[in-house]
Each structure stands twice: as structure tokens, then as C-alpha cells.
From TrEMBL:
The lineage of its organism: Bacteria, Pseudomonadati, Pseudomonadota, Betaproteobacteria, Rhodocyclales. SUPFAM superfamilies: DHS-like NAD/FAD-binding domain (SSF52467). Transmembrane segments: none annotated. The active site is at H127. This is protein acetyllysine N-acetyltransferase. It comes from Azospira oryzae (strain ATCC BAA-33 / DSM 13638 / PS). Keywords: Metal-binding, NAD, Transferase, Zinc.
Length: 253
């Protein structure tokens, strides 16, 4: 099937779908100019950071506890690159679909908050959100627009302990509540499952697609490359996320 015919077929099913799960990764935010953790690692000429650690070590849970100033330095660099990013057509179409009346759940690996910014209301942020800060000791938490006014590493205004973003660093476990939310979404029985802009290397990102495929639920992958879930997807559209979602939206109208 050529791309236009695939888009026609996917749009036809999407128009009738009551519940849709979108699984998204860095590729969906690439059209907003955003790097990933590893992409930010790629900003460095050398394999190691100035401190002699890999970027994965610098952005790890153990490093945050031992040398918070190092982890915060790189968190702040990531934050600077994505501070002014805005949702692109892919985020917007997913939010528009919800406004159109479809029960949409987004399960994202991205920490940029762009799905919420676009207006999606049911968003499971499995790796957390960069601008959501919380104290490592007490219950203090705050949502910020920028890290530019923070003194790094930031201290809690209530108890003076270390404040950190609510993101999953390397070596940390996934948030239980978000995993349970995903299971509830799968239990509800989506009519379609989309995998967009993710390399699907993590099992918790690939498994919902494999599960849907076994259940006979329509699966759609939007990714210029081939991934571990590609052989299981009913439809694989090898184009960028923003262009593909816009093309689907045009067919829905
Ligand atoms: Zn505190």
C-alpha cells in the first residue's frame, strides 16, 4: 500500500474509533526543535562531560544525590534548549481529536510538557516533566516556566533540602502511578493504538503495541525508521509526525 492509501485507511478507522491510545517519543517533539536526553548528550564534542562522566552518569539518580550541582548543570542545559519550544501539528492534532469527541490517552516518554500545552487532558508522562519541581525531603512542589531564575542546585524554601525536577533520571525506576494508569487505559480496550516517534527500545513502550496486535486492535506506527514494533504494526507510515498527523486530520474533516 502506498502512503496515501495507508493514510486513507488509517483515517477511515480513526474517524470511527471511540478510544485511541497514542504512545509518543522524542520524534514527535523533533518537529518542535527539541533534543532528547541522548540528543543533548550529542551536543558535547567529547564522549565525556567536563567533569569526566558520561552524560548518562551525569543525569543519573546516584549523581543527583552525590553531586547535585553536576546533575543540575546538565538538567539546566536541557531546559535551556527546550524552554521556548511550542507544540507542533502532531501535538495539536492529537489534542484536536480529543476536542472532536474521541477518548484520547497519550502515553509519552517526553519530559517537555508539549502534549499538555497543546491541550490534551489525559496525558501519562512516564518519564515525568522537567518543569515540575519537588523537594527531596518534604512535600514542597512547584511548577515553573523556566530554570533561569533558579540558583543551582536549588534548595527547598521550606526545609532547605535539595529540590529536583519530577523526571526519571538514568538508573531510577518508573513511577508506579503512571504505569497503573497505562494498564487501566489498556483494560478499557482502545480501538486503535498509535506509536509515534519512538524507537520502542524500552519494553514498556513496545509492549502495549505488541499486546494490541495480539488482541486484534489496529496498530499504527509513525516513524521514518524501522523499530522492534514495526513487524507487528498493521500500518507503518515512514514519514515525520507533524506531516503525518496533519495529513490524517485533513482526511477527517
Ligand atoms: Zn522541603
Amino acid at each position: 500500500m502506498d502512503t496515501a492509501a495507508t493514510l486513507d485507511a488509517v483515517a477511515e478507522e480513526l474517524a470511527e474509533a471511540r478510544r485511541v491510545l497514542f504512545i509518543t517519543g522524542a520524534g514527535i517533539s523533533a518537529d518542535s526543535g527539541l533534543p532528547t536526553y541522548r540528543g543533548v548528550g550529542g551536543l558535547y564534542e567529547e564522549d565525556l562531560t567536563a567533569e569526566g562522566f558520561s552524560i548518562e552518569e551525569a543525569l543519573s539518580g546516584p549523581m543527583l544525590h552525590q553531586h547535585p550541582q553536576i546533575t543540575w548543570k546538565y538538567l539546566a542545559q536541557i531546559e535551556r534548549t527546550c524552554r521556548d519550544a511550542r507544540p507542533n501539528r502532531a501535538h495539536q492534532v492529537i489534542a484536536d481529536l480529543e476536542r472532536r469527541g474521541t477518548a484520547v490517552t497519550v502515553f509519552t516518554q517526553n519530559i517537555d510538557g508539549l502534549h499538555r500545552q497543546a491541550g490534551s487532558s489525559d496525558v501519562i508522562e512516564i518519564h515525568g516533566r522537567l518543569h515540575h519541581l519537588h523537594c527531596t525531603r518534604c512535600s514542597y512542589e512547584v511548577e515553573v516556566d523556566s530554570f533561569s531564575d533558579l540558583e543551582l542546585p536549588p534548595a527547598c524554601p521550606r526545609c532547605n533540602a535539595l529540590v529536583r525536577p519530577r523526571v526519571v533520571l538514568f538508573g531510577e525506576s518508573l513511577p508506579q502511578m503512571e504505569m497503573e494508569q497505562l494498564l487501566r487505559t489498556l483494560d478499557a480496550g482502545p480501538d486503535m493504538v498509535f506509536s509515534i516517534g519512538t524507537s520502542s527500545l524500552f519494553p514498556y513502550v513496545a509492549e502495549p503495541v505488541l499486546w494490541a496486535s495480539e488482541q486484534g486492535i489496529t496498530t499504527v506506527e509513525i516513524n521514518p525508521g524501522t523499530t522492534p514494533v514495526s513487524p507487528f504494526a498493521d500500518h507503518h507510515i515512514t514519514q515525520g509526525a507533524a506531516a503525518t498527523l496533519e495529513a490524517l486530520w485533513q482526511r477527517l474533516r
